[in-house]
Amino acid sequence: MSHPTSGRFKALFLAIAAIAVAMVGLGSTASAASPSLPDGSQTGSIIVHKYKQPATPTNLPHDGSALDPTTLAGLSPLANVGFTVQQVQGIDLTTNAGWTKASTLSGSFNASNASGSITAAGYTLGTAATQATDGAGTATFGSLPVGLYLVTESAPPAGATPSAPFLVSVPLTDPSAHDHWLYNVNVYPKNGINAVTKTVSDAGAVKLGDPVAWTILGDIPDVATIDGYKITDQLDPKLDFVSAAVTLSDNSATLTAGTDYTLASGGSLVSVQFTTAGLAKLAAHSSAQVQLVVNTKVNAVGEIANTAVLYPNAGSFSIQPGQPGGPVETPPVVTKWGSVTVLKTDQGGTALAGAAFKVYTSQADAEAGTNAVDLGTPNQEFVVGANGQVTISGLRYSDWANGAAVTSSDPNYRTYYLVESKAPTGYELQAEPIPFTVTAATTAVGVDVTVKDVPANAGFQLPFTGGHGLRNYYIAGAVLIGLALVLSVRRRQAD
User: Which DSSP category does 68 fall into?
Assistant: First the structure.
């Protein structure tokens, strides 16, 4: 990134050199091309052009002249960026002494503490004029008397590292005609807009307590010195913190906890703040991103939204997200967990108590009776109540994975399987697993799956020892035996 300050003072020194050349020829007739001191009766302007800093340097001139719009076609203008302009008092640029003072001040100027360094040098600042850039990224400060001015980006965009304050003289030496002055000075300070993203990985999670990971990627400011950098993640109460890891996205350097950053995870706030050593390491690897992975467990059902906040500089630490100069917040990322309610009835629709079910995540496991989902119930069973109902709660939504909606054709779509492990007395177990899904609709109050049982042996009764059926058989047998004996006796008498 090219810094506007160096270009301004290069032009300033050119002006001083031009004046020195003119002074050498004071003993003879001055050349027609020799510059004169600025005209104190004229006024000038500072035209600020604000663009987002491109990924690669533009190498465009920065000498106070207006750049050809075609050379800026690939840059993104930034609107509503506030700038403040103040004249440095006690420096008269209509005199050689004034230019000497300006050059002396430039040598002690500290951009990170502009007002303080100017005051330390014995100068004061005049009334501040403040403007915001328009839709084209431009703010014009007109009717400025000849003098030296401090330009400060007083309201940078959210998530941006503001451009460093800089001094600029009105006028500057005209870059295309060194024997003339440029009273309307164009400056092009750029911002690196620091973005932050957040994603969630929950496709492999099935039940409450399974791991859910959140990955935050924060841009690193492309500046020589980073004075502060912090990422925070306020976890939803339905999430339990497990652990966190901090790395650079391209692994170009190793970040060490306690040396390069401090990690705090008290309560539900996870915060990573970089130390002085860590800030220097970030500045040296600004093409990478800071990656923070927060590992959690879900402890309750619900549609759980979560965001993260990036503070790219020290000044943003005390400003609310979204405010000028403040941190930038990610859009909400959501993981969704719910329930399903099962109703157990007979063929006529009468509720049946006493049944129990197990849940599986594949048909193969359901048929084999292996790897039942364990939500903390005895024997992984969900027992039907007196009303014939049971609610199975704590499963990830079927149609939502890794922070986005998924369809049934997606590999991350989750189908669950219900297996009846115990039937009510007098009824048969369900012969096959019953597929079901968990969605926002099933999580709402109401019955989602109805399971009808048939009576044992389809309602046909079997004979059994000691029953009335066998007693009747015994009586009939005795009668037949008696008849046989009577017939036998009569035959013998006849013989």
Answer: P
